[in-house]
Design goal:
The chain is mostly helical. β1 and β2 form a beta hairpin. It has one domain. A two-stranded antiparallel sheet has the order 1-2. Helices cover 76% and strands 1% of the residues.
Length: 286
């Protein structure tokens, strides 16, 4: 146990010192800031009929800050987490340090476990920072837009809902992140992991839509893919203004939440087991 703790501490230190971590964090915060400013600009535009973009103004308000930040983290944050996970494993091959890492650790399993724990820790840290950035931007846009500061919404029920959504967001991000980690191990490089992780994340939604449109037995296939189950859980995020479809899969039919949770759990277990098996059984070459 002490050996694993030592490896985790070393991995946490390495990732914290790498410039890539700072860059990914800056990109995440930058996306949140820019998106909020764009929404603020849109909220002041008059719509046909002399109406204002009321749903967007509601979204910019304080009650929507945390659920909206988590919705953004589920999408943009997943892509950034894929890059982090694939780089953590793949760069050891790219930099030809994998042999040194194996020599200094007691076993391959402990080394890869330490890297997976480090990925999870930084995913959680990123989610917390993303929520904080979203809330601060909501305060700023509320002030700039001249909207009312009202914190009466922050009840125990609201806090509990956001707590649950935090862990739901983390859970649905895991399959894509672990997929990237697995292919970084298989490909002995960060690039295969990044390419597969991001490629599946963005392309699977398009493929799912086409399959739903095709009808017949093909329409049921997406129920067992990652994207549809990702969307089924993410739609539980209670976004104000009823624009959750932009982040939760729209009006397409989706599997039940229980089905989605079980399906994603299977993917998580398979990806982790495959990463351990591949890393332990294959010769390490650089």
């Amino acid at each position: 146990m002490r050996a694993v703790t030592r490896l985790i501490s070393a991995e946490l230190f390495k990732v914290r010192k790498r410039s890539m971590t700072t860059i990914l964090l800056a990109i995440m915060i930058g996306i949140i800031v820019v998106l909020y400013l764009i929404l603020l600009a849109i909220s002041n535009v008059s719509l046909p009929g002399g109406q204002r973009a009321g749903s967007i103004q509601t979204l910019l308000g304080l009650p929507g800050a945390l659920p909206f930040a988590l919705a953004m983290m589920a999408t943009f944050g997943s892509a950034l987490a894929v890059v982090l996970a694939a780089s953590m494993m793949g760069n050891e091959y790219n930099w030809r340090t994998i042999r040194t890492m194996l020599i200094s650790s007691e076993s391959r399993s402990k080394l890869i476990a330490a890297k997976l724990v480090t990925v999870i820790v930084y995913m959680l840290i990123g989610l917390v920072i993303g929520m904080a950035a979203g809330f601060l931007m909501s305060l700023l846009t509320t002030a700039i837009g001249g909207y009312q500061f009202d914190f009466s919404f922050f009840t125990g029920a609201y806090a509990w809902d956001q707590f649950l959504q935090f862990w739901r967001t983390f859970y649905i991000m895991l399959p894509y992140v672990l997929l990237a980690f697995l292919f970084a191990v298989i490909g002995r490089s960060a690039m295969p992991g990044i390419a597969v992780g991001i490629g599946v994340f963005f392309l699977e939604g398009i493929i799912t839509t086409l399959m739903r449109t095709a009808g017949g037995w093909v329409a049921s296939v997406p129920d067992y893919l990652i994207n549809a189950n990702f969307a089924a859980i993410n739609q539980l995020n209670d976004l104000p203004g009823q624009i959750g479809g932009a982040f939760g899969g729209g009006n397409l039919s989706m599997p039940s939440v229980v089905h989605a949770a079980v399906t994603l759990a299977v993917y998580i277990v398979v990806f982790v087991a495959a990463a351990f098996y591949t890393f332990n059984k294959r010769d390490v070459t650089v």
